[in-house]
Sequence to fold (203 residues):
Amino acid sequence: MSAKFYILEKTEFDFMERYQFFKQFHNISLTDYHLLTDCLKARSFKKGEFITVPGQIQRKLYFVKSGVQMAYFETGDKIYTLAFTYFPYLCAIAESFSFQVPSKYHLVCLTDSELEYITHDDLQNLVDQSQQMERLFRRMTEAMFAGMIDLHIELRAMTIEERYKKFCRKSPHLLQLVPHKYIASYLGIDPTNFSKLFNNVKF
Fold:
């Protein structure tokens, strides 16, 4: 298989995989999906490069093609991890993008990343054109906030081992790509206890 053919094949695979991912939230047609993809532009980020910093308004909604990104905030010398994103998820400080207000958090690339984006203005025009796209993004936003609530409940109701196992079932690849201190922070686990879980709990 030539390199050129492989790139085309992989691009088509990513296109359809993201489409199927979106259909989990709302059953949009390929025609409506093309309205979105025709608006997307590509951008590359290096490992450690910030997408958004506190005080900056998130003007673009990113769609992850490759790499891992992290949202976090700092108090003193301590980092609190809020979320990780990777293909096929969206990537943004949600409230900053949705309401066009300054971000309170950092959004940084933990690895080299390839992202596609749509601007806030272009997205508003898109949802004005397509009721199906409006429903899609509304339901994806609702799912994101529901996920945040579920995480808060888990941090209080589940043991650290239960939290660790659930994370490993959902995102096992992050254990190899993300510094464990960030995962420990996300799960509300002391780094020492996280190391014990990593070394002793097998899947």
Remarks:
- The radius of gyration is 18 Å.
- The CA atoms of residues 14 and 80 lie 31 Å apart.
